[in-house]
Write a structure and sequence with these properties.
- With 610 residues, the protein is α/β, with parallel strands linked by helices.
- The protein has 3 domains: 63 residues; 215 residues, Glucose Oxidase, domain 1 (3-Layer(bba) Sandwich), CATH 3.50.30.50; 261 residues, Glucose Oxidase, domain 1 (3-Layer(bba) Sandwich), CATH 3.50.30.
- The chain has 14 helices and 25 strands.
- The strands form 5 sheets. Strands 1-13-11-5-7-9-10-4-12 form a 9-stranded mixed beta sheet. The protein has an 8-stranded mixed beta sheet with strand order 14-25-24-18-20-22-23-17. It has a 4-stranded antiparallel beta sheet with strand order 2-3-16-15, with no helix packed on it.
- Helix 6 runs parallel beside helix 7 and helix 9 packs across helix 14.
- It is globular.
């Protein structure tokens, strides 16, 4: 919310008057008349210059002030660690895989997009644990077996990912233990919080704040202090709750927790007892949170979202909070009442989740699952994934289609012609270095505005295929006339119904990608550049769709749409499902991509709270 402009103008006017009075008072009476006149003219010029310069500064200051959130306005806080190869973002013990990002294609003669492949394990960066991490499947009939042994990351209900943050201060425990041993968070630490604030209950997210990750998560080799040095018994362990504390919280009905330690399991021998003590209640939790100091003790909305891996006992994720204003209370209440809709498909090797490309050799990295460590008790392999950065529900940042500099790009001749056409009509394509980790989370969260474009299905003729029906600015305006005007910060979601109809196994299911790309069937409805530019005029930052992508199946038109998005510093969220379940009003869209540095895509999770 901007400060009233009249107030800023009043402040500037007061300063202008003071400048004029100050310069006007400079004495010239002791000089002869000609010199007095010359000096006065000089002072007048100086006065005008000084006033002009200072007014420019004030205007800039006023603009900054206007853009800053007010105390009564909601503010987003990123609680996630940066994932990059030189950070201690993966568990350092053998045989856990190391994280890797491969820039498979860069913008140039062979590609119009920056394309990345990720090698990532669920124990990477800020991460999510769910019950099967310790609870065995019911058919195994073991002591720790139960129905929650099937509650994988793709089965957890979306309302459980968020709630009211209750920040339990355990700063006094940091480094207060022998080397290789974790200081223990006990029941009395939670009781101390409750005495100062209120009892914890269902719908709360209990967060243990020790500032461990804030203190020790650093680039390697310094970053060895985060996990490796502790495992080697060179330094004290991270603070974590003991099993009794978990039992206490479970009996209170708390189902979501978080810690800014690297794991929720105290070292050296309480990792599994603490995990099971909480997970047997159906708890989920964040490990490796950060920046919890930015949260008040109570009242903030906290959320942890991550890719929806099939059969995943844990997963990489993105944690964030919202403080101030009325939004946190609204979202907290939605989670307490279990009013949530999951908008992301399950990631599975059996599903066609990535583009097969245009022509042989141009397919994206398919989603692969690889096993690396077997748990005999759980009869389960720990597993990681290799996938394209645009697998399933994902982010499209400006740097996906824009080069990182303004130098001429050696595009293929046909693409150079498309660029000339685009720039003649829409202005310079521009450049961008805005990759996934730089996109503010608030850009991809906001009031959900669903524009139903299913009427466009079947509007093209086979003679023109491959072709997608184009969503135009007129379609958006028609939506506004029948509902209400779009407002800055809204998330525009195009409902095509395509993924709900076609996302089916097997991996090479032709109906999803291949048939429309090859011109055998009509493509999915997709916005053209004119629609994107109109949305920008309305203050929209993020455009989403329940189709495979926002570009459609015509390469020329698709590229122009992505150029339009990137050149206007807009982002896309692609590959949603269940959009038809979103209420017409009162729904708030939440999406967050995994915080991978230099990533030109970004897998994540989208939900709606209503």
């Amino acid at each position: 919310m901007q400060r009233p402009q009249s107030t800023n103008r009043m402040k500037i006017a007061v300063v202008r008057s003071a400048i004029h009075r100050w310069i006007g008072k400079q004495s010239t009476t002791t000089l002869a008349e000609p010199y007095r006149e010359m000096l006065w003219l000089s002072l007048t010029r100086i006065r005008r210059f000084a006033a002009s310069a200072l007014l420019m500064v004030l205007a800039a200051f006023a603009t900054v002030q206007a853009d800053e959130p007010r105390r009564d306005q909601s503010r987003f806080i990123d609680n996630s660690l940066l994932i990059a190869p030189e950070y201690p973002c993966t568990w350092p013990s053998y045989p856990f895989p190391r994280f890797a990002i491969i820039h498979s294609r860069t913008i140039g003669p062979e590609s119009v997009f920056n394309i990345d492949t990720l090698l990532i394990d669920g124990n990477t960066g800020t991460q999510l644990d769910v019950p099967p991490h310790s609870v065995a499947r019911p058919e195994l009939k073991r002591e720790k077996s139960g129905p929650l042994g099937l509650a994988y990351t793709d089965k957890i209900e979306p309302w459980q990912f968020g709630g009211e943050a209750c920040v339990v201060d355990v700063l006094d425990l940091l480094d207060k233990a022998p080397k290789g041993v974790s200081p223990l968070v006990k029941i009395e630490h939670v009781e101390r919080f409750e005495k100062q604030h209120r009892p914890v209950r269902f719908g709360d997210v209990v967060l243990f704040r020790s500032d461990y990750s804030d203190t020790y998560y650093r680039p390697l080799p310094e970053g060895s202090r985060y996990i490796a040095d502790m495992l080697d018994r060179k330094t004290p362990g991270y603070p974590d709750p003991d099993p009794d504390c978990m039992e206490f919280l479970g009996k209170r009905g708390v189902l979501t927790l978080g810690t800014d330690s690297a794991s929720m399991g105290p070292l050296p021998d309480l990792q599994e007892p603490t995990h099971y003590a909480g997970l047997k209640y159906g708890m989920i939790w964040t490990e490796g949170a950060t920046n919890l100091r930015e949260l008040p003790a109570t009242g903030a909305f906290y959320c942890m979202l991550g890719p929806k891996h099939e059969g995943g006992p844990y997963g990489e994720g993105r944690a964030f909070s919202i403080v101030g204003g009325g939004l946190p209370k609204r979202l907290i209440e939605s989670c307490r009442q279990k009013r949530a809709i999951d908008l992301s498909p399950t990631l599975s090797p059996k599903l066609p989740l990535t583009s097969p490309g245009y022509g042989s050799g141009n397919h994206r990295q398919v989603y692969l699952k690889f096993d690396f460590l077997y748990s005999e008790y759980l009869d389960m392999w720990h597993h990681g994934h290799m996938m394209d950065a645009t697998t399933g529900t994902h982010l499209v940042p400006p740097a996906y289609a824009l080069p990182g500099h303004d130098n001429p790009i050696p595009y293929a001749p046909q693409v150079r012609g498309w660029l000339e056409e685009f720039e003649k009509k829409y202005g310079k394509r521009g450049s961008s270095t805005l990759t996934t980790e730089q996109i503010p989370i608030e850009w991809t969260c906001g009031e959900a505005r669903v524009i139903d474009v299913r009427s466009l299905v079947g509007s093209t003729t086979p003679a023109n295929w491959p072709m997608s029906p184009e969503i135009t600015a007129d379609h958006v305006k028609a939506f506004e006339r029948t509902t209400s005007a779009l407002r800055p910060g809204d998330i525009v979601i195009f409902r095509t119904g395509y993924n709900d109809r076609h996302l089916q196994p097997p991996l090479d299911n032709p109906a999803m990608w291949l048939d429309p790309i090859r011109g055998k069937t009509e493509g999915w409805p997709a916005p053209g550049p004119d629609a994107i530019l109109y949305l920008k005029e309305k203050g929209i930052r993020c455009v989403a769709s329940d189709a495979p992508d926002l570009g459609g199946v015509d390469p020329r038109r698709a590229l122009m749409t992505y150029w339009a998005l990137g050149s206007r510093e807009m982002v896309g969220v692609e590959f949603l499902i269940n959009v038809g379940k979103i209420p017409a009003s009162g729904a708030y869209f939440l999406f967050a991509a995994v915080k991978v540095r230099d990533c030109h895509g970004g897998p994540g999770r989208a939900i709606v709270l209503y």
